[in-house]
Write a structure and sequence with these properties.
two-stranded parallel sheet; D-Maltodextrin-Binding Protein, domain 2; alpha+beta; 8 strands; six-stranded antiparallel sheet
């Protein structure tokens, strides 16, 4: 396989252009739109993890006391605590925007920094600036395990932070040149008992917990 690691927005754009055969992403509303508009077929649930809000241990905005993610974001905005946004239309960025919308806020100002970068670069920026950001748990654990950052999880557990992943074949009726047969073979393998078992174990030895929870097969 040739793998192009980009955020969900770019991944779906590549698929919309017929530049890839299959895409794996994590922004369900955009995935459904992609399928409804005829770009993709045979979407399958693969796995999930969750998002976490990380920040400096001193927690200057006091979000540890928050009961919900939108309350945490409200506290960050109210205290003008530095927040790094991916601002790249990725699944993580779209989740962030959903939380701001639920909080009734449109963040702006010098405290709100729009990076236009990937998750790894944003984690590095947040670490350097001792700022808050939102990250998927898998990437966060990878960076913490590699000692690339030292920001703890400050808020977690709100159902809105649920982060499901899906895999979708590009529609061969729209793009006859795509390798639909191999795309479906990959989808079949990823959602098979064997593929799901690999996902279930991935990261467990290194981090003490898997980076993702498989959902396509019960108890793989």
């Amino acid at each position: 396989m040739d793998i192009i690691p980009v955020g969900t927005g770019k991944a779906l754009k590549l698929a919309e252009n017929g530049d890839v055969d299959v895409t794996m992403v994590h922004a369900r509303p955009l995935e459904d739109k992609f399928v409804v508009e005829g770009y993709g077929v045979n979407r399958r649930d693969v796995m999930y993890n969750d998002f976490v809000i990380i920040g400096p241990e001193s927690d200057p905005a006091g979000i540890k006391s928050a009961k919900t993610a939108d309350e945490a974001f409200n506290l960050i905005a109210r205290n003008r605590a530095t927040f790094i946004s991916r601002a790249d239309r990725s699944g993580t960025h779209l989740k962030e925007l959903t939380i701001w919308e639920k909080a009734g806020l449109k963040p702006s100002g010098r405290w709100y920094l729009e990076a236009g970068k990937g998750m790894g670069e944003v984690l590095t920026m947040a670490n350097e600036k001792r700022a808050y950001t939102i990250a998927d748990r898998g990437t966060y654990l990878t960076f913490m395990g590699g000692r690339k950052i030292s920001l703890p999880v400050i808020f977690e557990g709100d159902p809105i932070l649920f982060n499901p992943y899906g895999i979708i074949a590009v529609n061969p009726a729209k793009y006859p040149h795509v390798n639909y047969i191999k795309a479906m073979a990959l989808i079949g393998w990823v959602t098979s008992r064997r593929g799901q078992k690999i996902i279930k174990q991935f990261g467990k030895d290194k981090f003490g917990q898997p980076l993702f929870i498989p959902v396509a097969v019960p108890n793989p």
